[in-house]
UniProtKB/TrEMBL annotation:
InterPro entries, per the entry: Class-I_Fumarase/Tartrate_DH, Fe-S_hydro-lyase_TtdA-typ_cat
Chain ranges of the Fe-S hydro-lyase tartrate dehydratase alpha-type catalytic domain: 19-288
Cross-referenced NCBIfam families: ttdA_fumA_fumB
Family from the record: Belongs to the class-I fumarase family.
The protein's name in its UniProt record: Fumarate hydratase
Keyword 4Fe-4S: yes
Keywords, sorted A to Z: 4Fe-4S, Iron, Iron-sulfur, Lyase, Metal-binding
One Pfam family in the UniProt entry: Fumerase
Transferase keyword on record: no
PANTHER family xrefs: FUMARATE HYDRATASE-RELATED, L(+)-TARTRATE DEHYDRATASE SUBUNIT ALPHA-RELATED
Length: 316
């Protein structure tokens, strides 16, 4: 691992860590998600659904042993970057983005990852998952600290997402109806790879609603509850509803569809209550590292994206 005595985090270190995060996300399934699947396996009664869950666990073990991506479709790799307020990057944040784009291209070739990114009209494919606005890099900031957290997520980019503009009068019952409608369509039409962590964005503008819903699915661990007791209770209720519509893994009969349900909220327009639903892939592919200016790197699988500062409610 690279080391430095500078107070700036080297761009070369960011590139090196970015490649390693891509490798870990593609191959090593987080322990919280494995444990969630094992709990499902114990509760599932349908023989075929039990077979699928067991095959998932075995597939992950083989992928780790062979050091190969656990799924042939490695989705659309993306990054989430959380910066301590005092963090400095050698060359600035343009250098950080260049390093992560290079890391993506090298990881696509070396791991390998499937090159899924193409121009929407010409279908030009650079065979490296890098292009216009690809990979996505989202930012968040924390008071104090000179570190940078980099999280990579491999999420499918086709289906498993829905949005609806509800109104205040629809209330919680409206949220439940939309959630069930979405989950039924995902299962019946094969639009998602379940079981999965389901993220729900509630409120904000339409774009914010979609963003926080995807973050809720990808950046929180199994068992993590929203600090608002009412939202936490709704998370558990929706998880239970999702597992009692008669569908199990990959659309088979069963009761193993939602490994966990996470809700994130944003203040919305007074006249509306937008809601988005997102399912993560059935492998919950994420990996995170904290980079320090002395060259120290700490790897983990919990992004800790939703901090108290991130969820702050009003003027400080």
């Amino acid at each position: 691992m690279l080391t430095t005595t500078s107070r700036s985090i080297p761009a070369a270190l960011i590139e090196e860590v970015g490649q390693e995060l891509m490798r870990r996300a593609a191959i090593d399934i987080p322990q919280d998600y494995r444990d969630g699947i094992r709990v499902m396996l114990q509760a599932e009664e349908n023989e075929l659904s039990r077979f699928v869950l067991q095959a998932m666990l075995e597939n992950w073990e083989v992928a780790e042993q062979d050091r190969r991506a656990m799924c042939a479709d490695t989705g659309l790799p993306r990054y989430y970057v959380k910066c301590g307020n005092e963090a400095s990057v050698e060359g600035g944040f343009v250098a950080l983005e260049r390093a992560l784009r290079r890391a993506t291209a090298k990881a696509t070739h070396d791991i390998p990852l499937r090159p899924n990114r193409v121009h929407p009209l010409t279908r030009v494919d650079h065979n490296n998952n890098v292009g216009i606005l690809a990979p996505e890099i989202e930012y968040s900031f924390e008071p104090g600290g000179d570190w940078i957290d980099i999280t990579t997520v491999h999420k499918g980019g086709l289906f498993g997402t829905d949005y609806r503009m509800l109104f205040p009068g629809d209330g919680i019952d409206g949220i439940k109806r939309f959630f069930l409608d979405a989950m039924m369509q995902f299962g019946k039409r094969g639009l998602a790879c379940q079981p999965a962590i389901v993220g729900i964005g509630l409120g904000g503008s339409k774009d914010t609603c979609m963003v926080i819903g995807k973050q809720a699915a990808c950046l929180r661990t199994v068992g993590d509850r929203n600090p608002d007791p009412k939202i936490a209770a709704l998370e558990l209720e929706l998880k239970d509803l999702g597992n009692n519509i008669g569908m199990g893994p990959m659309g088979f009969v069963g009761k193993s569809m939602v490994v966990d349900c996470h809700i994130e909220v944003a203040y919305a327009h007074t006249g509306g209550m937008p809601v988005s639903v997102h399912t993560f892939c059935l492998s919950s592919r994420r990996a995170c590292a904290r980079l320090h200016p002395d060259g120290k790197v700490e790897f983990r699988t919990d992004p800790t994206w939703f901090t108290p500062h991130h969820r702050r409610e009003t003027v400080e």
